[in-house]
Amino acid sequence: MVSDKMAKALNAQLNFELYSAYVYLAMSAHADNIGLKGFANWFNAQYQEEMMHATKFFNYIMDRSVVELESIEKPRKEYRDALEMFEETLSHEQEVTARINELASLAIDEKDHATNTFLQWFINEQVEEESTVKEILDKLKLAGSTGPGLFMINSELNTRTYTPPADAQA
Fold first, then answer.
1. What Enzyme Commission number(s) appear in the record (predicted)?
2. 126 is annotated as contributing to ligand binding
């Protein structure tokens, strides 16, 4: 069992992971609507990854406490351009990182070693998430939001496929 405080915090993160998936699904739809199929593909893979993250939280909470699902906020549905989508993505991933770090700090404060160990996977994942998004954002800043550079990045993002990690259900 986890403390009531930890259970509440874990459930809040579960719901934020579901919101994150929703954000990326909306971004995928917008990118598709404006003809950026590669960007749509990348955001759809990100949606799938966020759903896997939510599933990991769901399963962990089920093992240690009670799941409490909340309403999911409606995400933004339109963006000025691809650059704005990735600026928003980086900001969102930085918020996820801050939330995961707060959870880890709470686990340490409560001497909840099992939860702290569980959260280490997410801490490492967030380093990768932010790095990947920053790399794409840097390319967009160099290439611009229109023209051949955007076409090349769109083509590159179209190659992403989501492959769940071996421990996805853990």
1. 1.16.3.2
2. yes
